[in-house]
């Protein structure tokens, strides 16, 4: 079986030095899509999952809106945000507390 998008992103992150990974996290947060506080201490696996969730949902919602399925796009985003909020709350104990991700 071929590599998945998850495999490719994780491989790219795993190939970075500590300094390069820090630069990647800072640049990713500059886009105001994923705040630095959420990814500062996350593993490469967690960062990969967050990138896929964030950008896959946004792109899918964009396509739904492009074909005038605005309600479906909004439902998708609401469900994804609810799931992400639950995972952020669940993970607070081992990270010293993270702020919830906001929209820029």
TrEMBL record:
Q: Which Pfam family, any one, appears in the UniProt record?
A: PYRIN
- The segment(s) forming the Pyrin domain are 1-82
Q: Which PROSITE patterns match?
A: DAPIN (PS50824)
Q: Which InterPro entries match?
A: DAPIN, DEATH-like_dom_sf
Q: Where is this region: Disordered?
A: 76-104
Top-level division of the source organism's lineage? Eukaryota
Q: What is this protein called?
A: Pyrin domain-containing protein
Q: Which organism is it from?
A: Aldrovandia affinis
List the top taxonomic levels of the source. Eukaryota, Metazoa, Chordata, Craniata, Vertebrata
